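Section: Multi-chain targets

For targets with more than one molecule, the full set of components is provided together so that the structure can be written out for the assembly as a whole rather than chain by chain. Components appear in the order listed by the source. The example entry contains two components.
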Amino acid sequence: MTSSQKVSVAGMGCICACGHTPESAFEGALRGEAYFAFPVNRVESTYTSKFPVFMVPPDICAAKPADMTFSQFFFIEAAKQAFEQAGISPRQLSSKRVGVVVGSSVHPSFHCFEIYKRWKHHTLTAQDVTGLKNYLATPLAPWVSRFFGFKGPVQTVVTACASGTDAIGMAKNWIETGLCDAVLCGGTDEISESPYDGFIRLLVSTPQKCRPFSKDRTGINIGEGAAALLLVNADTAREFHLPCHGYVLGYGNACDGFHPTAPDPQGTGLQQALTFALRDANVQPQDLAFVNAHGTASQANDSAEAVAFRAVIPDVAVWGSKGVTGHTLGAAGAVEAVLSLQALNKCILPATVGFTMADEKLGLTPTMQTVPIAKRVAVSDSLAFGGCNAAIVLEACDAA
Amino acid sequence: MLPKLYVNGWSCLVGDCSAENFASFMDVRKLRRAETVSKNVLLCAFRALEQAGEKRQEKSGWGISLAMGAGALGSTLKFMDSIIEDGDELSSPTAFASSVHNSTALLLSLFLHIHGPCVVTGQLDSSFAGALLTAQQFLAKDMCRQVLVAITEDVNPLLMEQVQRDPHVFDPFMYQPSCPPQRVAGVFAVSAVPTEATRFVLDDFQLSATADVASCTEPQVSVCSCAHTVLALKQQLETQAPFVFHEQFAGSVFDCKGEPYVRP
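Its structure, encoded as tokens over all components, is:
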């Protein structure tokens, strides 16, 4: 595919525990520094002093308007960064077909916990009714589109922890098939009671810091945040003299059909998703600088991923970034795409924070220190409950 | 160029399935832990596939595009109930796992033996329109040859109570006083090229953010369930006549055209 046909990243934004911009998040990943909340102060749970999470720092959260959820706020802030980096305002794109695809898990579910609790106790207030109306009026992607004044197609992807990767892949396809000239895409999620308690009750969360791909890994730390990418076709990039911060070359998706919460141990669906993404990108495994793994540090996830990597992309460097972001659920794939593009553009691959010792059963050792990279292409994958797998192929910007 | 969608089979269900409905498709005991909303859409999928002439056990070449307006609501409420009633230390992990949107998609892929692409859309009333768009993209990018476009919706008791108090604001369809609230499921089997089973063609899709942004400064809540779209579309298909379809949602509009398929 020539650069005149490729879907380029005109701008990106990111807010998560390790930074509040793409630059600072990548710096945080390099230094292994992040806001690790212990005890957790934003959810009501008896577990808050037992199970830590990666959170967006309070000084960033303090700017959240009262009429937005954290998921909405994180995504809007990330999107504003993306437009700023692209050097264009949403209004300037008004003559274009601009779509919005956002992946999330908490906002699109009926997780109105406090309202529901009051309803159960027959103490619903007028403010709660207004809250319900707002919930019904703000399906995520249409709301984001309306916020920026776009008129193109809208889609809220809810394939759980694969949502962010799916959103970017689908946005790329929307442009390639001519549905849109530009798409604002990404993922967003927030710490809330249901996933916090739910992962603990499933015995997936760990009271320690997560250790991706380590022999002594004990589980996941959930996290929160958002990442947004402004993808554009070549004509739009030319017309508005937009910068290029990389390309989205390929997208693959396949389901295991195996188990509600565990991946297929053979990583069958992931193998298929990776294979399709590489084919879509016209990229060979040997072209890859690295794979940004889902790497949640759960026994089952890391094991299935290792099998799939050995089968489809053997000998490719594996980087896990959840040791600095936590598992940001529906935002994870988007946050990791932004971190991966930063790594490609800066030609350095960070260490896998949290990794302690190799697990011989996995047959892979993730990055243990920051290393220079020469290749221009990487793949990022996500696995989700229900056996949904997604992968995207990313390329460095031309100047890298 | 985006492909037309050739509709090769469809099935809708208002209310709940029964164990007997599955007798000719599978061992129903395997569904004993499945949520009702998931079983409803699985039954529709079996019927739509049958109508589409798909008889293979392993359905290679198929993808799934599932719409769930508010997710797996029954399980979400069950999980919140278990926290409220039993405390979070005794909350139900099973209910949490089932509350994830993908749990319904899993049931379809597991029992229909579909291992192709699978995406779930959840944006309240416009979810089904989004799922149709995704199916079209799967086909345009050759990610699969046929797609099950599915929707399943639960009833929200909290919203239902509010609707009865304030029917002009909330969903005028599922929760009308004259229409008892019921679960709704539907599945359309579609392809980018006609098959021997093709009966209808859908074209000219548009799912766009509401054009008049100024009019959206106040929240617009027309319907809160994507079930409305699937039932309206089914009704159109059953007329066996060309139609133009238009629906207005909270913040977006959906348009498409349809006509009976005439075999060349």
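Chain A touches chain B through 79 residues (CB under 8 Å).
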